[in-house]
Input
Amino acid sequence: MNETVTTVRGTIITHPTTRRVNDDPVFSFRVACNSRYQDRQSGEWRNGSTFYLAASCWGRLAEQASGRLVKGDAVIMQGRLVTNEYERDGVPCRDTEMRVITLGPDMMRMEVTARRLKRVEP
Output
């Protein structure tokens, strides 16, 4: 199967939650991505539209992210985009979700201290 991997830069806009699906931890949150452009006439920077996206991290990534990222944090994430279709009160709905495979703070907008994980030998 050909999967398209996408990179998104944005701000966490909800309080992240951690839950378990079977034995797997899942870390979920929503992100807002704002576009900006420079007005050719005035040369001023203007805000464009905002793209809202649900995000979910699974397994080890969920464990690492849980408790470390909070609402308001700037993030860069990479993953597969999927469309969820469901019904709410009999009305068909759809939303876009990113199944995140890589997640980190946006160091352009946040001060970060990083620490390498110790390898566990089998």
Summary: The first strand starts at residue 5 and ends at 12. Residues 59-65 form the longest helix (7 residues). The mean pLDDT is 91. The chain is about 5% helix and 60% strand.
